[in-house]
Amino acid sequence: MAGVVVVGAGMGGLAAAARLAAGGHRVTVLEQAGTHGGKLGELRRHGFAFDTGPSLLTLPQVYRDLFAATGGPLDGVVDLVPVEPTCHYRFADGSEVDVPHDAAAVPAALDAWSPGTGGEWAALMADAARLWDLVGEPVLQRPLGGAADLVRRSASVRDLLALSPWRTLRTVGRRRLSDPRARVLLDRYATYSGSDPRRLPGLMTVVPYVEQRYGGWYVRGGLRRLGDALFDRCEELGVRFEFDARVTAVETSGAGVSGVRLAGGARVPAEVVVSDADATRLYRDLLPDRRARRPRRALGRVVPSLSGFVLLLALRGRSPRPHHHRVLFPADYDDEFDSLFGRAPRPVPDPAVYVCSPDDPAVRPDGHEAWFVLVNAPRQGQVDWTAPGLAERYADRVLDVLAARGHDVRDRLLWREVRTPADWERDTGSAGGALYGSSSNGPRAALLRPANRAPVPGLYLVGGSAHPGGGLPLVAMSARIAADLIGPA
To answer: Where's the Amine oxidase domain (predicted)?
Structure first.
């Protein structure tokens, strides 16, 4: 059997390890942290439990396929439940709308909130469905080595024109949606890839389409249970894990990869290396091989995604109007993107605030609530989040913003935990704590991330910084692509 080393036990690395082990490979996973899951983290304290990463699963079929292909059904190991409504939105004028889990019910809900918007949104999603047909299977779920591959995958010039790479998500919203609040709602989906709607290709209307077509889902006990189930599946398949094992180099010979070097000098030989590390870190720091010069140069032009500032709030009592997911928009959404992507990045003064508060007894003591609060933030390095007092002052600011938007929880606060971009960088190894790998600001960035097959034979990339991108479904797709390229033992 071929020896495979997987660098990183994030969800992409775990998914790749499971598929390769199921295919007969002898797999070792090396993880610099003390546990598995990567950005799909968890904090447990005093009866409260918080997902510290993703809080919503879309495209659950990707994980159903993964588990079915590696030994047993997903629904046998986790309890996957629909989130209803998928999200509650509050706008600067005080108006509110719930977006239902059922895609068929979305137009009526939007019409009740803003007459005429439901029909406009339905027409926009119908066009997004055609775009999904173009990119879902042909592009996102197959290896992509560059622009030439993208052209070859397109059945005709008409297909390429349908992608409209010269239009941005913002342009699409202005052309297709007459209510400015509906445009804000569409802009929000740019942040799913850590991007700016003014630069994100209009192709990314597929993001709300996928969320609404396939629904938003939650795993009882927290999404971390999905990572635990995948880790358990790997162990059942004989995958060997080494934690607190920091890889400092991917070693190569003329024929390709030969193994990896660990901090402290130990060497682990391998015929195949699958990297779940950030692609920039891989090519810049771990792989001095001259064959990596081209992707190294390309990554030098890539803008990493935005990061996030997170509050984990243990709250006394229950809210009168609980929602699993809610987004509270500011009056000036453009100021947020100027703050994040402008020439002088700064913490957003008046940010959009995302709150996840599952009504799940497994994550809170009876009668209380556990709130995960996220605001988009500049990366570590753009702002020094380790500066004395900055994190706590900004945490207070976020609580003030929540209060101003009708959710004053300051007098209910039992305790809080603050996570900054500096923490994400330290814990996950991502550049500056970028949550989504590279941003999708521009057509090339959106569709032409680093290839899953590296130019060095035997080296493969998975995870959010490689094709097809970040997010739970996409990193699992990257793992399937890599495993198919490697093939069975």
So the answer is: 11-486
